[in-house]
Write a structure and sequence with these properties.
Blueprint (H helix, E strand, L loop, with lengths): L2 H11 L11 E5 L2 E4 L4 E4 L2 H4 L8 H13 L10 H13 L6 E5 L2 H16 L3 E5 L8 H5 L4 H4 L9 E4 L4 H7 L4 E6 L2 E2 L5 E2 L4 H12 L2 E5 L23 E4 L10 E5 L1 H4 L15 H16 L2 H22 L3 E7 L2 E6 L4 H9 L2 E2 L1 E2 L4 E4 L7 H23 L2
Parallel strand pairs: 3-15, 5-6, 5-7, 7-10, 10-11
Antiparallel strand pairs: 1-2, 2-3, 4-12, 8-9, 11-12, 13-14, 14-17, 16-17
The structure holds pyridoxal-5'-phosphate.
Length: about 400
């Protein structure tokens, strides 16, 4: 198929729910992508933060190939060795007490399960979520997602979901009561511009939840698996959740979601209360085990901290150098550069310069590269950004 045919078939048949950029991705390796014409790009998007161990990581490929030849599907009502292995690995790297797991297929599903578990355990209906939050677009997860643009066309959603300002402990104290099943929070908000929780906020939420016998759900779907320079972003603030949601990077690009919970919390879920045909399938489990082993063996968490510091330093320098740049933010390799204008053209110009960048809101450049990105690639990305921003500055300030 030629480029025009690929684009026209996708445009003709795929539900038009995605905002598309003109890039046909044909191949990936590490932090490098190639388009249908063999042109090479540095990938700072990582499939929306999925490709943490790099595209087509050889250990993930080997694990998937070997498993595909043995068994691809195995329902949760039977036992399976790779699933057992993954559960053991996952629990061993997870925060204290996160030792029961429900396996699903996506981030939104991980959140759906978390909401059901919290309601069942507490026998309370109310969920307190944060302004600026993003937890997915299925109806339950959407109910806890802040953006009115995403929520309003689909009302009525879950009743008894309240929003409280992200980062304001006093407002949270007022919002949470003995009616609250759980508070759900991202340690660093990803979709609303890479906003880390202000120091002390997560600790205060922990205390507020304990006081009201409410559960604390931490959504680590974008931040987990070393992305922020710690295995879990909540470690930066030394706060343990009661329920944790995972997805994106977990299976190296294969679909998987995981909801982890304290033993006693998960014990409230009985046979038949929740299930998923594909959840915990052997192919994704084999991939996820390889991902965890690779992260640990190759020291990717430390690498994210080191490469992230180099990348962020460069972004901070750009923010100082140009008036059109407002602020650099983030931790590890979860970074943003907030601009003073709509960055859509910058994303297109980035593609012309062979760098794939993600947005996070209209004026914020977001960087979620694979953690295997090299220093040389980061330097090149920073050079490209410098050129692109210089052009924007000229058109905006010198005309
Ligand atoms: C923090 C967070 N939660 C939930 C989700 C939803 O995940 P999915 O798109 O796999 O449903 C996302 C996706 O971007 C996310 O960033």
């Amino acid at each position: 198929m030629n480029e025009e045919e690929i684009i026209s078939l996708e445009n003709k048949y795929l539900a038009s729910t995605y905002s598309k950029l003109p890039l046909i991705v044909a191949k990936g390796r590490g932090a490098t992508l190639w388009d249908a014409n063999g042109r090479e790009y540095i990938d700072c998007m990582g499939g929306y933060g999925v490709a943490i161990v790099g595209h087509c990581n050889p250990r993930v490929i080997d694990a998937v190939k070997a498993q595909a030849e043995k068994l691809i599907t195995c329902h949760g009502s039977h036992y399976n060795e790779v699933r057992a292995m993954l559960l053991d690995r996952l629990v061993s790297i997870s925060p204290a007490k996160m030792n029961r797991v429900f396996l699903s297929n996506s981030g939104a599903e991980a959140v759906e399960a978390a909401i059901k578990i919290a309601r069942k355990y507490s026998r309370r209906p109310e969920i307190v979520a944060m302004t600026g939050s993003y937890h997915g677009k299925t109806l339950g997860a959407l109910s806890a997602t802040w953006s009115p643009r995403y929520r309003e066309p689909f009302q009525p959603l879950l009743p008894e979901v309240k929003f409280t300002p992200f980062g304001d402990p006093e407002k949270a104290r007022a919002a949470v009561s003995n009616k609250t099943a759980a508070v759900i929070v991202e340690a660093i908000q990803g979709e609303t511009g890479i906003k880390p929780a202000p120091d002390g906020f997560l600790q205060e939420l922990r205390e507020i939840c304990d006081k009201n016998n409410s559960l604390l759900i931490i959504d680590e779907i974008q931040t987990g698996f070393g992305r922020t320079g710690r295995m879990w972003a909540s470690e930066h603030w030394k706060v343990d959740p009661d329920i944790m949601c995972l997805s994106k990077a977990i299976a190296g690009g294969l679909p998987m979601g995981a909801t982890l919970a304290r033993d006693d919390v998960m014990a409230s879920m009985r046979t038949g209360d929740h299930s998923s045909t594909f959840g915990g399938n052997p192919l994704s489990c084999a991939a996820a085990t390889a991902v965890i082993d690779y992260i640990l063996d190759e020291g990717l968490v430390e690498r994210a901290a080191k490469m992230g510091a180099i990348f962020k330093d460069g972004l901070e320098r750009l923010a100082e150098k140009y008036r059109v740049a407002r602020e650099a933010r983030g931790l590890g390799l979860m970074l943003a550069l907030e601009m003073r204008f709509d960055i859509h053209d910058m994303l297109l110009n980035g593609l012309k310069e062979r760098v794939v960048i993600l947005y996070s809101g209209k004026n914020i450049l977001r960087f979620l590269p694979p953690l295997v990105i090299t220093e040389k690639q980061i330097v090149r990305v920073l050079e490209v950004l410098d050129r692109l921003i210089k052009t924007e500055e000229k058109t905006r300030f010198e005309n």
